[in-house]
Amino acid sequence: MGAAGEFLTRRRALVGRLLALVCLWLAQPAPRWLVIGAGIAGAGLLLRGAAAGYLHKHEQLATSGPYAYTRNPLYLGSALAAAGFLVACRSWVAAAILTAYFALFYPAVIHREEQELRSLYGAAFDCYAARVPLFWPLLAAGGAAGGQRFSWAVYRRNREYQAALGFLAGVALLWLRMRWRG
Q1: CA dist., res. 130 & res. 59, Å (int)
Q2: Number of domains in the chain
Q3: pLDDT value of position 15
Q4: What is the pLDDT of residue 5?
Q5: Given this model, what pLDDT does residue 44 score?
Q6: Chain CA centroid to CA 8, Å
Q7: Are the C-beta atoms of 124 and 68 separated by less than 8 Å?
C-alpha cells in the first residue's frame, strides 16, 4: 500500500469526526427526518455492535455472526449509520461531503485490512473471501455456521460502545440544532 493509502487509513477517524461536525453545521433537521434517520443509524450501530462482539482482533479470523454474511460488517454498519445521520441532517451538501469521504477513505482501508488478514491467516482467509462478499451481504450465511459466539467482553474490549455514545451525541446535537432553528 502506498503512502496515500497509509495516510487515509490512519486519518479516517479524525477526518470523519471533523466532517461530522461540518455536516452538523450544514444540517437542516426536522422532527420526522430526525426520527427516520436515527432509526437507520441505530440499525447500523446494531450491526456494528453485533460484529464487534465477534471480532477477536489479531487472534482469530472472524467468520461467524455478521461476518458470515459480509467480510466488512463494521464498515457496512458505519455506512448505514452515516446514511441515517445524513437523513437526519437533511442536507444535500452534507450528503455529498460524507459520500465523498466514504468513497475516498473506505476502499483504501478495506484493501489494507484485507492484505493484513491475508498475511495473518493465508489460505483460511482466501477460502473465507471466496465464500463471503466484501461489503454487500449475502442473504444466506457463507461463513462459518458454528464458530465464534458473540461476547460482551469482546464488544467492550473493541470499545464499540464509543460508537453508540457518538450516535447519542449526534442525535442530541441534531435535536438541539432543530430546536434552536425552530
Answers
A1: 21
A2: 1
A3: 87
A4: 58
A5: 96
A6: 16
A7: no
* Three cell numbers, residue 181: 432553528
Where do we find the cell 427526518?
A: 33
Cell of 157: 474490549
- pLDDT for residue 2: 62
Q: Which amino acid is at 174?
A: L
Q: Which residues contact 36 (CB under 8 A, 6 or more apart)?
A: 84, 87, 88
CA distance 165 to 171: 10
Upper half-sphere CA count for residue 124 (Cβ side, 13 Å): 10
Residue range of the domain that includes 116: 3-181
HSE, CB side, 13 Å, CA atoms: give it for residue 95: 12
Nearest Cα residue to 37 out of 22, 23, 52: 23
Q: Which residues of the chain have pLDDT under 50?
A: none
Q: Smallest Cα–Cα separation from 37: which of 171, 179, 160, 172?
A: 171
Q: What is the largest CA-CA distance in the chain?
A: 57
Q: Both ends of the chain: CA-CA distance in Å?
A: 48
Measured CA to CA, the distance from residue 34 to residue 43 in angstroms comes to: 14
